[in-house]
Design goal:
Layout lengths: L14 E2 L2 E2 L21 H12 L10 H20 L5 H13 L22 H16 L2
Antiparallel strand pairs: 1-2
Helix pairs in contact: 1-2
GO molecular function, one term: actin binding
Main location: cytoplasm
GO biological process, one term: Arp2/3 complex-mediated actin nucleation
Length: 141
Amino acid sequence: MVYHSSFVNEDGVSRACGCPLLPLKSHIKGPAPVSDQDRTDIVDEAITFFRANVFFRNFDIKSPADKLLIYLTFYINVALKRLEGCRTLAEGTKAIINLGLEKVPVPGESGFPFPGLFPLPQSHKEAGESCHHYSFILIFL
């Protein structure tokens, strides 16, 4: 059974390229609002559901948060592949930091892993906001 995000009806949540800017548990200021430390955020859901969701070839998208969940699941997979060859904690830490520093392609750019999943940015500002949001989320993984 595919696990879907619990952030189905998040009224008043702004979006960038169709991706909801959901609250994150963080003390770092970024484009996403700060979440209550006791509440599960989208990153927690992606980590919790990762093991089950990677086994499914098809994923019925029920909300914009599910699109973000798909993207985060992909990123967790990329992070785990980077850690595969690391033999020490220091090597692993360096690999993940370097992954977080890489340029993140946004919808419409070559290299974006899910063409067609997210709508193209309507403005330069939206493209920058979505890139900053994707990068910001990836820092927490």
